[in-house]
Amino acid sequence: VISRAAHELQLESYVIGGFVRDYILQRGEHKDIDVVAVGSGIELAKKVSELLPHKPKVQIFKNYGTAMLRAYDLEVEFVGARKESYSEESRNPEVESGTLEDDQNRRDFTINALALSLNEETFGDLLDPFDGLKDLGAGVIRTPLDPDITYSDDPLRMLRAIRFASQLGFRIEKESLQAITRNKNRIKIISKERIVEELHKILLSEKPSVGFSHLHKTGLLRFILPELTALEGIDEIEGQRHKDNFWHTLEVVDNISGNTDDLWLRWAALLHDIGKAPTKKFDDNLGWTFHGHEFVGSKMVYKLFKRLKMPLNEKMKFVQKMVLMSSRPIVLAQDVTDSAVRRLIFDAGDYIEDLMTLCEADITTKNPRRYRRYHN
Ligand code: CTP
């Protein structure tokens, strides 16, 4: 239908971005389709709607020059091909119409710049100016242009690179990775909401430690979740050392992710030890202690969610509760007075105990029986 509409308007159109990438990777169903028109994306959207039997409503975003409609369970976004340049000072791009190639140039990664032709003569042809197909095959995240330019056009792309690496199990090409470390400061201009969306996606990936260790090594994590970077390192006093709570946390997050897809349990695992940095003490008799870290940590969860502009709702309280209970063996949901939070705990069911167990990953992995005794 899009192809016919474009033909009637005598313009070229292409499917581009995530849909093409996931289609080639055969990675589930991608429900959003991005269509580029060499011409007006809004006019194309209107024409497509006319040709569809149910004449879906076209939502127009004038400021962006884009339009969206829903059809057959799909969300189709139309955009006119453009050249885009962002000035240093402003986050609003200066937009100018351009060719398909201009549009591919302004994309974040080679694997997201692949376009499929919807034009009659070339229908289905893949337009791949940056060898994105090769990168898809080899599992590589690479910016199409000089990464300093790509990241400064939109610094969120640094996080996106890491998120795709974590989601797809890809590696980030050397230059594209080094440029993240160089440009990390610029993440400050990005809205908290966009950042959190990427954090959710990293947490929901199969092995979130891939993403979090990239975030840490590039220095981005210190800007986003300083509570976590504060956990890194091992101190030694009188020959006594404690574990490195940052790397321990990543181990716990991977473990829990093997057991549950629940985003909020994964957040709880990520934050379960954040109270340990401010409570760390060396006691002559006891050695290293983190007395009261669960309580301090659960308070920190509130501040962290607030800082990241995340909703302070029952999910947040659930995470707080989990952090509060993270070192205790048995959780009685009945003890929790807030009914919405209690519901979440009941829904999490068996995983609650998994979380408790996994928070003690170092004990359990070494000796599960000892763990049981320890807690009994
Ligand atoms: N894009 C970009 N820079 C961004 C965001 C998006 O160049 N900061 C481009 C990429 O070509 C991307 C497309 O816009 O493929 C669509 O973006 P989006 O829907 O955010 O991501 P997807 O690639 O579709 O992936 P996902 O749906 O997994 O987020």
TrEMBL record:
The keyword Nucleotide-binding applies. It comes from the Bacteria. Keywords: ATP-binding, Magnesium, Metal-binding, Nucleotide-binding, Nucleotidyltransferase, RNA repair, RNA-binding, Transferase, tRNA processing. Residues 248-333 form the HD domain. The chain holds residues 15 to 390 of 471 of the full protein. Residues 14-142 form the Poly A polymerase head domain. Belongs to the tRNA nucleotidyltransferase/poly(A) polymerase family. Residues 169-230 form the tRNA nucleotidyltransferase/poly(A) polymerase RNA and SrmB- binding domain. Its cofactor is Mg(2+). GO terms for biological process: RNA repair; tRNA processing. This is tRNA nucleotidyltransferase (CCA-adding enzyme). GO terms for molecular function: ATP binding; metal ion binding; nucleotidyltransferase activity; RNA binding.
